[in-house]
Design a protein that fits this description.
6-stranded mixed beta sheet, Rossmann fold, ATP-binding cassette domain-containing protein, ATP-binding, OB fold (Dihydrolipoamide Acetyltransferase, E2P), ABC-type ferric iron transporter activity, 5-stranded antiparallel beta sheet, OB_MalK-like, membrane
Length: 357
């Protein structure tokens, strides 16, 4: 296992990059502790796979360093980094049994037969596949094939990091929750450094202790799932994480406060001085309907089972509220109240209010 440090990292696929837009990865500085569970989360094209390939040694960064336990491995090839990877499509040998698939990485490194057998059975027990050790891999279901692929990554005890690149994309939705739970359980048992790359917020938030949210080659926030949800540092995080995403209302900032359509909106704290387009950000979970607040008209109501999502329009802006219990009818006049400690101002996308009141 290893502590992983990315220092002043940038990468461009152009031979002579000259401007920020030429870089697939903007400057990144990260430190991942030994034994932690981490996720790289963002939409397609945000730089997740580029960063993963740099960590694994498949790409040499244009600038910066990669360190494993303070040792510079930037120029080291993949086979010198002791990394295990689990890909989107299971990498297993169909003609081999489950046992032989799990044993292959160890046999390939000359591990003695007794140790191979003990390790294979240990991993099989963790994965709940002991009963199928003698089964040919070709006959396995897709989720069990991916389990074996995960097992091949975990069977070695000398790896510095196990990296998962969109491992559940091709798995049926009703089976994903099983594999997500199993992966979390495996991490808690083996305590290896694990990095999980995905565009799916549910996968990232349920697996990782720390999530790195990326947009356009840039890290916009690093935090726990609770931190990302409750205090987004950027409007992209508020939009990308949560369903529905964070509401944004254009506002005027003066005297340290925010005003929408002339009405003062209570905030978590004072707005920091600065220039740029200002928006009030508040999640639907922290919007309520009542007798006071911003006047609005209900545009639509969606019943999603456990609660309803009320979409109301105020000042020409759509604002969503998550409501439990009875809801107003379409066209009804309502008032929208925002929970002050969860309401903040963003300037040019970045958080601009002080924490606390």
């Amino acid at each position: 296992m290893a502590k992983i440090t990315l220092s002043n990292l940038r990468h461009s696929y152009y031979p002579n990059p000259s401007k920020p837009e030429d870089y697939a990865l903007k400057e990144i500085d990260l430190e991942w502790d030994d034994g932690g569970a981490y996720a790289l989360l963002g939409p397609s094209g945000c730089g997740k796979s580029t960063l993963l390939n740099i960590i694994s040694g498949l790409l040499v960064p244009s600038e910066g360093k990669i360190l494993f336990d303070e040792q510079d491995v930037t120029a080291e090839p993949p086979d010198r980094r002791n990394i295990a990877q689990v890909f989107q499509f299971p990498v297993i040998y169909d003609t081999m049994s489950v046992y032989d698939n799990l044993a292959f990485p160890l046999r390939n490194r000359g591990v003695d037969a007794a140790r191979v057998d003990a390790r294979v059975r240990e991993i099989a027990e963790m994965l709940d596949v002991t009963a199928m050790l003698d089964t040919k891999a070709a006959g396995l279901s897709p989720d069990n094939k991916q389990k074996i692929s995960m097992g091949r990554g975990l069977v070695r005890d000398d790896v510095n990091v196990v990296m998962f690149d969109e491992p559940l994309t091709v798995i049926d939705p009703h089976l994903k929750w099983k594999l997500r739970s199993k992966l979390k359980e495996l991490h808690q048992r083996v305590r290896r450094t694990m990095i999980y790359v995905t565009h799916d917020q549910t996968e990232a938030l349920t697996f990782a202790d720390q999530v790195v949210v990326m947009q356009d080659g840039e890290v916009v926030q690093i935090g726990t799932p609770v931190e990302l949800f409750e205090r987004p540092q950027h409007t992209f995080v508020g939009h990308f994480i949560g369903s529905p995403g964070m509401n944004l209302l254009p506002c005027e900032v003066r005297d340290g406060g925010a005003f929408f359509e002339g009405s003062a909106v209570p905030l978590e704290g004072a707005v920091r001085p600065g220039e740029g387009a200002a928006q009030i950000g508040v999640r639907p979970e922290f919007v309520s309907l009542g007798a006071t607040g911003l006047p609005a008209r209900v545009a639509r109501v969606a019943d999603v089972g456990r609660h309803s999502v009320v979409d109301a329009v105020t000042g020409g802006v759509s604002v969503k509220a998550i409501v439990e219990g009875p809801v107003p009818e379409q066209g009804a006049e309502v008032h929208l109240a925002f929970k002050p400690e969860q309401t903040r101002v963003y300037r040019d996308g970045w958080l601009a209010t002080e924490a606390g009141r």
